[in-house]
């Protein structure tokens, strides 16, 4: 019974309706107590080790830690994606056109914002969606794509056939 409960905690949520999406997005509400800011915590310990001459030494180690909500973690990952998008656009704007067989050509972008990112499994596992650029999306059986902008905390609906 305990193992089954633990397994279910780590499964992606099942998203079938827009109500399921809204229920999942409630945990990303900017003013929710789940996303409140916490003070930094300083952790410290004394550790035993050896120095360069292999003599036993005690070392004092400390570090400042930061507690991040799931919203903060996703925003941090999507900020990297946004930076890649902006950089790719700048590089493409600055790229020199080269005439090839009488047609002006630009080299392809070497920066891809749609490649696998570390935030992708977090989005899938916690929200049951996928990343498209810096948006989170769900394709539902109702024929619509639901796109969430975490920076604006806004959910938008699109026809599945339309160009995204």
Secondary-structure map:
Layout: H1 2-9, H2 18-25, E1 41-50, E2 56-65, H3 70-94, E3 98-100, E4 103-105, H4 119-127, E5 130-132, E6 135-139, E7 144-149, E8 154-159
Antiparallel strand pairs: 1-2, 3-4, 5-6, 6-7, 7-8
Question: How would you describe the overall organization of this protein?
Answer:
The protein is an alpha+beta fold. It has one domain (2-39, 68-159). It contains four helices and eight strands. The strands form three sheets. It has a four-stranded antiparallel beta sheet. A two-stranded antiparallel sheet has the order 1-2. Strands 3-4 form a two-stranded antiparallel sheet. The longest helix has 25 residues, at 70-94. It is flat.
Attribute tags:
flat; 164 residues; 4 helices; four-stranded antiparallel β-sheet; single chain
Short characterization:
This protein has 164 residues and is an alpha+beta fold. It is 30% helix and 28% strand. The protein contains four helices and eight strands, in the order ααββαββαββββ.
Number of helices: 4
Q: What is the averaged pLDDT score?
A: 85
Name the overall outline: flat
What strand order characterises the main sheet?
A: 5-6-7-8
Low-confidence segments, given as residue ranges, are none
> Total number of β-strand segments?
8
Q: What about the largest sheet?
A: 4 strands, antiparallel
Rg: 23 Å
Main structural class: alpha+beta
Separation of termini? 44 Å
Oligomeric grouping of the chains:
single chain
Number of domains: 1
Q: What is the percent of helical residues?
A: 25-40%
- How large a portion of the residues is in β-strands, by DSSP E? 25-35%
Order of helices and strands: HHEEHEEHEEEE
